[in-house]
Amino acid sequence: MRSGQAYGAPASADGAPAGAYRNSAAGYPEATPFGLPGQLPPAKGRRRLWIILASIGGVLLLVILGIVILVNVVGSATNHARGLADGFTKLVIEGENSKAYDDYLDPALQEQLSKEAFITGVESLDMDGSCKPSYNDLKVSTENGIKAADVAGVITCDGKEVDLAYRFEGTDQLKMTNIKLRPKA
After folding, report:
1. By percentage, how much of the chain surpasses pLDDT 90?
2. 8 A C-beta contact, residue 120 and residue 128
3. Which residues, other chains included, contact 28 with Cβ-Cβ below 8 Å and sequence gap of 6+?
4. What is this structure's pTM?
5. Tens of pLDDT along 122-166?
6. The domain spanning residue 72 has which CATH number?
């Protein structure tokens, strides 16, 4: 056995470990298909691949960010409109009609509908604490800087239903510009 050879490892006729490639002319191990023994193949330039992947990742990130911003803006406007409708409807159900009139109705609507007529009309609906609103249509929009929200739904009370439809408009603060509260047919 030659020195440096592992005990029990088979050897070739020239004493090199079995399976080693030899260049018979120079006495060196033969080159494998991937280069010299023990060497890794040369790394290919992957710069183009990384540029493409980074570009795709950047575009996807911008698309996701745009969707998140859009959802937040639309969701915020929708939640604001729902909050206005809830606030107004809650006051009307609780019988605080004068406060609802003063706080929510636009001055232009107040000119068309007197406070007394509003209060009389709402009281004729006989709403009480059992009444609960549900909104089945809520649309928000902005045109030329004027925000608008259309809310439609039903107020369900014990034994009856009241149709509702509100329109809120404004630039900074939304006020009710149209209202419909009537017993459901």
Report:
1. 42
2. no
3. 22
4. 0.59
5. 999 989 889 999 999 888 888 888 888 899 999 999 889 999 999
6. 3.10.450
